[in-house]
Amino acid sequence: MIALHWESSGTGDPVLMIMGLGLSGGAWWRTVPVLSRSLRVITFDNRGVGRSQARFHSYTTEAMADDAVSVLDAAGVENAHVYGFSLGGMVAQQLALRHPGRVRTLVLGATHPGGPRAVRPSAEVIEFFRRRASMTARDAARASVPFNYGPRCRREHEDRIAEDIRRRLAHPFPEQAYRAQMIAATLHNCYRRLKRIEAPTLVVHGREDRVVPVANAELLAGRIPGARLRILETAGHLYSTEQPEVDEEITAFFREGR
Amino acid sequence: MNARVDEVLEAGLNTYEDLIRRSCDLQRALARSLGLDLLNTTADLTRDIAAVQLSGARWLLDA
Description:
Largest sheet of chain A: 7 strands, mixed
Strand content of chain A: 15-25%
Largest sheet of chain B: none
Structural class of chain B: mainly alpha
Number of strands of chain A: 9
Order of helices and strands of chain B: HH
Helix content of chain A: 40-55%
Strand content of chain B: under 5%
Strand order of the largest sheet of chain A: 2-4-3-6-7-8-9
Distance between the termini of chain B: 10 Å
Largest interface: A-B, 17 and 14 residues
Distance between the termini of chain A: 35 Å
Number of strands of chain B: 0
Helix content of chain B: over 70%
Number of helices of chain A: 12
Shape of chain B: elongated
Oligomer: heterodimer
C-alpha cells in the first residue's frame, strides 16, 4: 500500500515536480512560487518520504515513476511538463520512457543516466552518502553542506543555506526510506534508452556539482534527441539555492513547449 | 561487442520489458475487476524484479 501526499498551486499548464534523495516535495519551496506565477505546479512526497507512506521499503526508479503517474491521475492531469531533480531526474527519465504520453516537456536537473557510463562522484562523496544514512537528520543536513553547495554559495549565501536546512528538517524521513532510495538510484539505468525520449528536454546542471558530476549532464544531453544543455557556472548540486534565477529560464522552457 | 549482436540483445531486452509491462497491466486489470488487491502487489513485484534484471542486463551490455 502506497499513500502519496501531493499539493497543487497556481493555474495554467500543469508541471509535475519530482524531488531527489531524502527530500520531500516541500524542498521545492524556492522554485514553486516562481513557476506557479504562470503554471499549475504539482509537487508530491516520494514514497516513504515526508507525508507519503510505503508499506515496503523496496524502491526502483520504475516504481517511483509509476507513483508519479498516479499523482497525475489523482490531480486529474492527462499530461504535464515534468521537472525532476537529482534522484527525481532519474524518475523523470523513467516517466518519459514508461509513460511518454503523460510528458509534454522534460527538465532534468543535476541528475545522471545510470549504468556503467554514468560518471561517479569521488570516493569521499560516496562514503559520505553511506554514512549519512545513520546520522540524525540535523547532523546529516549540516554535514551535507560542502557536498550540496558550491564554494561561492557557501561563502556568499549562508543565509540561504540555513533556510534550506530549516525547511528540510520540517520533513525528516526514515532511514529505511533513505536506504531504499539509495538503492533505487544505484540500480537506475536509462542510458541505453535515452534515445527513445521524445519530449523536448532541457538538462540543467551546476558546474561545481560534487554529488552528480557535471559530465553526466553532457551524457544526458548527448543521448536525448534534441536536448538542450544549460550549465550553471559556479553552482553546486542544489543549484537553485545559488542561482534562483534559473527557475525563470525553466518556466520559459515550459511555456514555450506548450 | 559486435554491433549486430548488441542490437539483437537490446531488442530482446526491449521485448522482455514490453512483456513485463503487459503482464503488470493484466494483473492490475484483474485486480480491479475481481477486487483482489493482492494482484496489485504481485504486479508491483513483477515490475520491480524485472526492473532489477533489466538494469543489470543493460549494465552488462554497456560495460
